[in-house]
Amino acid sequence: MTDQPRILVVDDEPQLTRVLRTGLKSRGYDVRAAADGLAGFEAFNDWHPDLVITDLAMPNVDGLELCRRLRAVSQVPIIVLSAKGEEKTKVEALDLGADDFVTKPFGIDELLARVRASLRRAKAPQMNEATSTILDSGDFHVDLESREITVRGKPIHLTPKEFDLLVYFIKHSGKVLTHRTLLAALWGGNYVEQNEYLRVFVGNLRKKIEPDAASPRYILTEPWIGYRFHEKAPEI
Amino acid sequence: MRRSALDQRWAGYVVAALSVGALTLLLKTVGAHVNAATVSLALLLNVLFIATRWGSLPALAASIFAMLCFNFFFLPPFGTFTIAATDNWIALLAFLITAVTAGQLSGSAKRRAEEAEAGRREIERLYAELRDAFERASHAEALRQSEKLKSALLDAVTHDLRTPLTSIKASITTLLDEVRGRVEEESPVALDAESRVEMMEVIDEESDRLSRFINGLIELARIEAGELKLRRRWGAVDEIISAALMRAEPITRGHRVELDVEKELPGVRVDERAVSEVVYTLIDNAAKYSAKGSVIRISARRAGDELIQMAVEDEGPGIPANLRERVFDKFFRATRDGDVRNHQPTGTGMGLAIAKGIVEAHDGTISIEAGRGGKGTRVVFTLPTGDDEVLDEMQHPAATVETR
Question: In a 3-state reduction of DSSP, which class is residue A215?
Fold first, then answer.
């Protein structure tokens, strides 16, 4: 019972929480539901779930506010459910620290895939967080000390900024990273609006690490939002 | 235009010649009893007439002609153009001066009248232009407003279509996964019979919800296009209410329904089905937004000679005064848009808008107030009794308020 990952579903739409509860339970997750951000935050505090799935538009405390409150106290993975037309809010939620999003209407598979990835990611850093200066992840092998990188066994040469960007990607593999998040992490707060900087660096990085820079498999573009990094190129 | 002006002028000369000639002839036939002063006065009047009517030039012609006639026929020596006495010269001069002055005066008066007329026309033209410009501007503003409204409505509609669709899609993919026997990495699909039924229930209910929503949209569009066809006939209020109650039975099972219908209410000339729909909507809302076990009160009574007032009241959380108008707006939901806490599924946001449309089409009014003791929600609407053609005029100025 206790080894079942706990998922908190926060949505004001009772029918959807009903479906998600059943769908997730059938995959062996322990599920609780809350009808708004306020109830969701309360449930989080006394249940300590491993992952939170939240809608964005809700009465009382909405999804954005919930993300903000959760991030103030926890690094729990958050997946937001958003609709077309809510792009702005979605990006805001990601900037506030949400890990991923699913666009309504969605198939349960898509949600489950995101849930699995988020849970995996949440577990991973605890093992990696050691003082080790070696980052071994999928096709990438990084020596943080000597700043050497090999991709699929081949050494590559990166500029210092490209190196930092790639390391940041590897450390947040699988997660959606907004333009703003990346810019703030690598260039600092003054550059958060300079999307074109990022585009140039990502372009150069792709040329060096991707087998085919025109159809990238490691650094994927999330249109209008940012990028998502995969440490292992998916099989084609 | 020019041609007719020319005609006018020639007409002036012709009339001048003819009238002076005729007058002279008349005076001559009347005889020698007429003295020179009378004749000159008569001719002078004639000249004046010509001057005021046709201006100075025809008048001048008339005066010369008149002078010649006067001189020839009425001044001694008769039959010649010679003038003997000095005062006759003076008379002649008076003739000419009168003709010219009167002509000028009438001409300038005419000109001024024409100028005034042109001025008036100019003002009219400017006014029309201004009005057109205003119309264009307000039209553009209205268009912008309506575009804004349209996109807000589109947002509301897409949200209401997408929400049930999301539940349906999630349910069906859950079921599909199991049917396909897919086994996931760590967690095999384990859907028990109960869950399976639940998923299908959700699909069933959400499909109904979509269908209700679409029906509502159609109904609303009909009302807004003014195509709500009322089939009015004499009906009894208690029958209308009991029809609605019968339909609402499944949703009011958990509540206590109290009925308070005044005895011997007059008949109403309404579309019974439409009004019953209104009552049903109100009961549905009352049941949806109040706790199980609480009371739903339905009442009907006379309000004055020509009105029946009906009300549905619940013991729910009530609607704040500032939202009581807005809940009649289409797609507005107090529970969602107005921060009224309630975890029941919200409605389509169209029920009250449709109810309002139906009531107003019957020349009635609908409004919301607090229930007994300031708690709960009480929706009140009125229906006119008897012949509405008479009633329209005298009874319901409020009913003509536009639905938006």
Answer: coil
